[in-house]
Specification:
The protein is an alpha/beta fold and 423 residues long. It has 13 helices and 21 strands. The strands form six sheets. An eight-stranded mixed β-sheet has the order 7-8-11-12-13-14-15-16. Helix 8 links the parallel strand 11 and strand 12. Helix 1 packs antiparallel against helix 2 and helix 7 crosses helix 8. The longest helix has 15 residues. The N terminus is likely disordered. Bound molecules: iron/sulfur cluster. The site of iron/sulfur cluster has 15 residues, from loops.
């Protein structure tokens, strides 16, 4: 889980060697020229934006800095291999996700043990409908994200640096059980929550799971990894709420400790994915297939339908066809209603008729568990129907489970197995 962790091909080794020579020569611009020539596709970074002096010292002292996992040393430059942005950083640079920096030839994360947000949420809010229904997840996030979604509902944290959400001066505030009802703004800014603290707080609040959410756990990979590992050792489950833009090796390494995931599939068109999210559709499809093959992580797919971007019925039909063919008919899909936000505040909310049409298409295509989110007035938006006898077996009122007619994961009426993790 460091530079040695990445088995690389001979061709890749030649690429990295060339980029490393450029780094050793101290030539930032040469790095970019070689990178472009070799189509290494690293993300846009923030040159010279790493913290220095007193700020760096304070973050180190707090324990909010940790050497990155999954990266390559290229002379004095480094390349992060956690997500497909594959940021190449010369000394003093900050990464695309804003969370990682190159300090003197070593990659560090600044998003460690310093959540800017935490909350106890029902798992239905993630949303996960086929995973421990009615249970809660202790949910945490740091600043930073690997994407730049035009519609981000958490852009205040996802598009911030960790230093903009936290304060390393003054006395540290360490959260341990018993957890107070509220924290002041200053306590939140100075809060340290190390992996062992996250687990003990989750247990003290009777949360069977920890959710890594709000921004994206890929951007705070090292914190997520260490917390997941500690949680697994202490019989607490782990949930990733993610855009799914992660390198396969990093996913497989983290995935051994993960129990469930919510993965966004933000559309089914490569150009739109780039324009709307700065992501790659093919990457997400590959990760969904990897998760399916891994088999140890229960996951559900979420598709936010945004007017003019992802509301084309033909596109939705192709997407549903791909899901059935590659993930099978039992993978739940949630069509979520868009509300005007951030850089798309000029668009209207998704019309209910489009959401209902998407549900109809998904069912016609063969998907068995289809839901509509953010639209409480739509009939049966959150109802699970038995695919065999077609009775309503789980009903939900927004995030509350109001009916649960399951016996050990089987329909109470016809005894058919219902896909999911139920206990
Ligand atoms: S996780 Fe962050 S630093 Fe690493 S490649 Fe992705 S954007 Fe770059």
């Amino acid at each position: 889980m460091s530079t040695n962790h990445n088995g690389i091909s001979r061709r890749e080794a030649i690429k990295y060697c060339l980029a490393g020579m450029a780094g050793a020569a101290g030539g930032g611009s040469l790095v970019w020229l070689i990178r472009d020539a070799l189509r290494m596709n690293p993300g846009e970074v923030f040159p010279g934006d790493a913290p220095t002096g007193e700020l760096w010292r304070l973050w180190h002292e707090r324990g909010w800095v940790k050497e990155g996992y999954h990266y390559l040393k290229l002379g004095r430059n480094v390349q992060c291999k956690v997500c497909p942005n594959n940021c190449i950083l010369t000394p003093g640079d900050r990464s695309h996700c804003r969370n990682k920096v190159n300090k003197d030839g070593t990659l560090y994360t600044l998003a460690y043990a310093n959540p800017c947000s935490f909350h106890v949420d029902p798992v239905e809010k993630k949303p996960l409908f086929h995973y421990l229904p009615g249970s809660t997840a202790f949910s945490i996030a740091t600043a930073g994200c690997v994407f730049r979604c035009l519609n981000c509902q958490n852009w205040e944290i996802s598009q911030s640096k960790p230093e903009e959400t936290k304060d390393a001066t003054g006395a540290e505030y360490r959260l341990r059980p018993p957890v107070p009802e509220t924290l002041s703004y200053q306590e939140m800014k100075r809060l340290s929550l190390f992996p062992e603290d996250v687990v003990s707080v989750a247990k003290s609040l009777s949360c069977p799971s920890i959710a890594y959410t709000y921004s994206d756990p890929v951007a705070f990979y090292e914190y997520t990894y260490d917390t997941c590992k500690h949680a697994r050792e202490n019989k607490v489950k782990n949930i990733l709420v993610t855009c799914g833009s992660i390198d396969e090796r990093a996913l497989r390494d983290l995935g051994q400790y993960v129990d469930a995931a919510h993965v966004d599939l933000k559309g089914f068109d490569e150009n739109t994915y780039w324009k709307l999210n700065t992501g790659s559709l093919q990457t997400i499809l590959d990760i969904l297939k990897t998760l399916h093959r891994m088999g140890n992580i229960w996951f559900e797919v979420i598709n936010l339908i945004i007017p003019t971007y992802s509301d084309n019925p033909e596109m939705i039909k192709r997407m549903c066809g791909w899901l059935v063919e590659n993930l099978g008919p039992d993978r739940p899909i949630h069509f979520s209603r868009f509300h005007p936000l951030y850089k798309l505040s000029h668009l209207p909310p998704t019309p209910v008729a489009i959401l209902e049409k998407a549900r109809e298409i998904a069912r016609m295509t063969g998907l068995r568990y289809v839901y509509i989110g953010n639209a409480p007035d739509v009939a049966d938006a959150g109802t699970t129907f038995c695919p065999n006898c077609h009775r309503a077996i789980i009903e939900r009122d927004i995030f509350a489970v109001t009916r649960l007619d399951l016996d050990a994961g089987r329909c109470k009426y016809c005894q058919s197995t219902i896909a999911g993790v139920w206990s």
